[in-house]
Design a protein that fits this description.
Length: 505
Amino acid sequence: MKKNIIIILLAVTFIGSSCTEFLSVNEVNPNNASKVDAALVLPAALNDVAYTMNYPRRFDFAYLWHGLWSISKGYTQPANLVTYNLINSDYQDAFTEFYRTANNLDVIEKGSTDVKACNYAAISKIMKAYIFQNLVDCWGNVPYADAFKTASGVLKPTYDDQQKIYEDLVVQLDAAMALIQGAPADATAIPASSDIMYGGDMGLWLKFANTLKLRILIHQSDMAGRTTYIKDKIATTATIGYIGAGESALVNPGFLVSASKMNPFYGYFYNAAGSSNSDGVTYYMAGKDVVEFMKANNDLRIGSFFNLPSSGTSYIGNVFGVPNSDASVLDQKFTSPLGYSAGVSTTMIGTAKKSAPILTDFESLFIQAEAVQLGLIAIGDAQALYESAVTQSYIYSGLKNSDAVTFLSQSNSHTNFTMAANKRELIITQKWESLNGVAPIEIWTDYRRTGFPSLLHFSTTTGKKNDTPPVRLLYPQTELTVNNANVVAVGKIDAFTSKIFWQNR
């Protein structure tokens, strides 16, 4: 990707920059949306999504609460996370970033009413759906219908019902797919310099949209009386297919080994000189649950996910939520850090130039495997999809097909599909470890809706507010300050009992 693409994106809120210094394109007047240069706004918006989804601090709680990461003994444990005592300012940056990015996408959509601009309109709809699915999964009811009506004088948008938002996201995705399929022969082609995810390949955007739609629907699969709705909605676009092997949605604007131009995940841990950032690699360490699970099942991906401790010859993880004063908490030198090797992109931390995942092929294949196993998709082989998902995760981790075959063929109910008594649990558990460092919100969502993996150990910190982690985030303090009446109108919110609508357990 050419260096000049990076220059376009420097106005984006990026690594180390202030959230208020967002996009130069944000200065576009929504009243003159038809004048927006979508070719310039789109790459910045896609890059913003990649930043929010991949910057470790945005959703680190998902890794910490679910046995994947821990905090080094060299640091004070984050009290609000180990005690499950969330406050309104926790993770509000993600909320703000999501809305700012969605606003830019909305500007593109409103400025792409000409039939020839249908591909830009479609991508905007798809990525807005992606953002709002994540907003609902974290916060429930959120501003939706009135979210981008500042030009009409709506400065304090009302909060919409979360289930209705989810249902409309399916409608919007169907509309986006129809736009792509019905594009005229002279439709404006999106150049690779603008489409920094799929390089202008609208066939892949179709599959991404349909996979996102399936993810939205599968989240509702444990709701009573929802099966017919889910099956009917899946059937309407079933012929389009889903993201398959080698078709991951990955964003790369032309990441460089240069300050503020690196992969956001890598850039949290290492600087452009290749030196580790303070409070980066020494802060987050391996989680005990996933390390013990991987060791017990001879999982070679462990060498990609984690490094050996500085003292010792075996991978070791720690339990998040054990007080530092507890003798069972391992000293930093005895706990495995997150996987890294200079110049190796297949480790968890990767490299400065590594593409940032939005929705990987292995996540898509796990979703499809679960949908087939539940009988929501009429055609397909759950075992083949599951095994393909694990194989693609192995490849993403720098391993070979043959390594995956050996792993999957073990006489082991935790890896072998045929031997597993609960095949859905197998799918979700393998998805849990595969998405480590890749998709935090989906890990949290899967646990909330299914209870898998069932092997997790939760915080033992004295004074914790609940035996298990929160089921939602609290509305941002910024919203309480500037949009208080509409937040209050939602009703009393409890982090442990105000479940997202699809959680049926």
